[in-house]
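Deliverable D5.2: sample structural annotation.
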Amino acid sequence: MSRIAGRFRELAEQGRKALIPYVVAGDPSLEATVPLMHRLVESGADIIELGVPFSDPMSEGPVIQLAHERALAHGTSLRDAIGLVAQFRRDDAITPVLLMGYANPMEHMGYAAFADAATNAGIDAMLAVDLPPEEVGQVNTELQRVGMDNIFLVAPTTPAARVARIAAQASGFIYYVSLKGVTGAGHLDLDAVRTGVAGIQQHTALPVAVGFGIKDAESAKAIAATAAGVVVGSALVSCIARAIAEGGGQQAAIDAAGNLVAEIREGIDSITS
């Protein structure tokens, strides 16, 4: 059983929901990324989603696009992101880590080389935003060879037949995009989210985590009542950027991120306490 599957099983047995914070490798800096990851775990994160900087992050809104730009300005690459997870694993062999990014850097490295490097570093899964289920055969062969999960996005506009195809290729969990548009956009429609999650559950027994549009403890609590997990990205990345912009420095950014995750953890847990 993968670390991700084990974590979801453990949480289900406890009657709790997963909190999955997203941060970008190299933002606010390469040297701050691993301490930030540890702080997120200390504050209640169950799975870490680590973004791989990319020059054309088409699925991201302005907040995360700027984080990619900052990380690229620091020279952060896919290999750097893998190396950061290896550093993280020196002190944390338990918390699942998911790399989220785009197909081009992995294709450039080579899927077999990527799978070997990632699993050797202790990475549990990948999510390639722009890699459709029709084109994952080679990727899945390599990921399955090393025991890594392949996480897929499902959007509100995804037809049922395509959801079924995605579910057949996925492992670990399904990431449901709660909003039409890019990360950080719009307002949550809880009825629509419930309908979307239920539709996915007709095709798979995998846990469904919901992301996009979750900004605080209240919105996370509302989503956790419906889904097995909650993904928090833009609000967290914005919190980090704001702390830096206000002159607080990297430790202030780490502290601000930890405080936000702790608040969201409390909100999520309030539905099961």
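Annotation notes: The chain has one domain: 3-269. The radius of gyration is 17 Å.
The annotation will be released with the project's public dataset once the embargo ends.
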